[in-house]
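Good morning C.,

I know you're traveling, so I'll keep this short. The sequence:
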Amino acid sequence: MKAFTITAAMAMLFAQAHTSPIASKAEARQFAAQITFEGAPPDVAFYTASIIADGSVVPIYNPLSVSHIKSLGGATCTFYGIDGSVTTVVGAQTVDVGPPQTQTSGSCLAL
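The tokens, ready to paste straight into the viewer:
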């Protein structure tokens, strides 16, 4: 009985030691695109977001009327405006939003 208890305890520790690092490594590898939404003037009216680049559509709740969307790179991102605009940013660039409007959602996919 004592041998069974020790063996069972070792098996549980072994299982925990081998499942946790795998999950942590997978989460650590998840890339997030760094996005800046700029209004007018862009040096005063802006906000930033870190968007996981897995293709999931995420809601955006900031009411700022956005004129430009800037990405630091590493992903292709598409954003949807309240008045129907669709703005795609590929890699590290700044793209105009036309006409300027509040962004309601977006998604990014790592390059």
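Safe travels,
E.
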